[in-house]
Write a structure and sequence with these properties.
The protein is of the alpha/beta class and 450 residues long. The protein has 19 helices and 12 strands. Strands 4-5-6-3-2-9-10 form a 7-stranded mixed sheet. It has a 3-stranded parallel sheet with strand order 1-12-11. The protein has a two-stranded antiparallel ribbon with strand order 7-8.
């Protein structure tokens, strides 16, 4: 009986597929690549691909007084995401460069600014693009920081590319416009497959998070079975436990902002990483995944997507400190839990029939801090609409009540009541509360309340 696997997991690659059957043909020992492997001219770039890569090639040729100071023996290649995204016809991403044959001294003398703490990375003083010396790495301890690096002029471009996480991120572009692809990234791009470069993938737990994020970015990409197996190995070896919450949040936040965040959650659950990273949270439900994908479809804010994710935990089990999320994300998640703690009251909240119900509505709006934080109130409404707890009509009513309460005339009316209370020596809090109730009652839909 065939073993079940999620639909986004690809079968193992057949290494014996003839090159003539590949749309993107790979050449391990020659720079560049060709579409038709039967042509005798050697590796060539198809014209439309050349056009996609032209801005990157032009950047490598651009007159640059800083790079001009580097020794002639140094070679610079554009690598990683910029090349990948150009081949996928995606908008320009940040350009990163690998420097082969260089030294820290040469980079410093040319005017580059060192920024790498663990290995030599330099910022161009004008463009602020990253230039990293070609390097190799070796595992020395557990966790994502347990690596030693070698960066010297003897490290080749191929060695640098072979240390990368995924084949599609291990493609380089030369000044001559040639593609250097020692890992088969072009083939995997065409096959829409996320595949690890080598077995060292399992040494760095961050790569599991990055894989999950890329899966969320490109829902039409499958994940190689062998890559998924290495991810499970990362979890079984307890490497994922070495990840610090700040690093986890960095990848989770990026994944939540991708086009289909549910795929990130799928990968984390399937590999067992979710159980380690979010031990206090239950596995994401199908309903939650649909809600988060809908939030992505509507391009709502990160705070809203995080609030939906954390609401899955249940009101009394919300571990807000689990992820080192920004304060705005945590506040909205907590507010969502509190505002929906009594979902049965929502109907009467939206359509109050008496003064007591009106007071509950005012308390609800006050707790949401609509007067000082209107953008957060809108995020709260977005969450409630996506969750289906309120209809669009009910959402519009709450928005209208909040807008009415935040008008300048309302502020003046409340301020006047406060001044009168101060002059009379009465309770300022009670006066402000009553004034807000009066403002709400003056809304056209609420004037019938005695």
């Amino acid at each position: 009986m065939a073993q079940w696997r999620p639909s986004w997991v690809s079968p193992a690659r057949n290494p014996y597929i003839p090159l003539c059957q590949l749309i993107w043909a790979r050449k391990r020992h020659a720079p560049g690549w060709q579409i038709d492997a039967q042509k005798p001219e050697g590796p060539r770039l198809r014209k439309d691909v050349q056009d996609r890569l032209r801005p990157l090639v032009d950047a490598l040729h651009q007159a640059d007084p800083i790079r001009a100071k580097l020794p002639a023996s140094i070679e610079i290649f554009c690598v990683g995401g910029a090349v990948r995204d150009a081949l996928l016809e995606l908008p320009d991403s940040d350009r990163d460069y690998v420097v082969v044959g260089g030294t820290p001294e040469a980079m410093h003398n040319a005017g580059f600014t060192p920024v790498g703490q663990d290995f030599p990375v330099f910022l161009h003083p004008i463009t602020h693009e990253e230039f990293a010396l070609a390097r190799t790495e070796r595992k020395t301890a557990s966790g994502y920081k347990g690596f030693s690096f070698q960066a010297d002029p003897s490290v080749t471009l191929t060695q640098d590319l072979m240390r990368r996480d995924l084949t599609i991120n291990a493609i380089a572009l030369s000044r001559e416009g040639n593609i250097i692809d020692p890992c088969g990234g072009l083939q995997d791009l065409e096959a829409h497959c996320l595949r690890h470069v080598g077995p060292a993938f399992s040494e760095d737990p961050v790569r599991l998070l990055r894989l999950a994020r890329f899966a969320a970015r490109w829902p039409h990409f499958s994940i190689s079975e062998s890559t998924l197996a290495l991810c499970k190995e990362i979890v079984l070896r307890h490497e994922a436990q070495a990840l610090v919450p700040e690093r986890v949040w960095q990848e989770i936040a990026k994944g939540l902002m991708e086009s289909q965040p549910s795929r990130m959650l799928d990968v984390l659950v399937t590999t067992g990483a979710w159980r380690v990273l979010a031990e206090k949270l239950p596995a994401p439900t199908a309903s939650l995944q649909q809600q988060i994908d809908q939030a992505a479809k509507e391009s709502v804010a990160l705070e809203c997507r995080f609030g939906l994710l954390m609401f899955n935990a249940g009101g009394d089990r919300l571990p807000l400190g689990l992820f080192k999320a920004p304060r705005a994300c945590l506040e909205l998640a907590e507010l969502l839990q509190r505002q929906l703690s009594q979902p049965d009251h929502l109907d009467s909240l939206v359509s109050p029939k008496d003064i007591n119900a009106l007071a509950v509505l005012l308390e609800w709006l006050t707790r949401a801090d609509v007067q000082r934080r209107p953008e957060r109130f809108q995020q709260l409404l977005d969450c409630m609409r996506i969750m289906g707890v309120l209809s669009s009509q009910q959402i519009n009513r709450l928005r209208a009540y909040a807008k009415h309460l935040c008008q300048e005339t309302a502020h003046q009316q409340i301020a006047h009541a406060v001044r009168q209370a101060q002059q009379a020596g009465a309770s300022v809090a009670d006066a402000a509360h009553q004034a807000r109730l009066d403002v709400l009652r003056s809304h056209p839909d609420l004037r019938f309340i005695p």
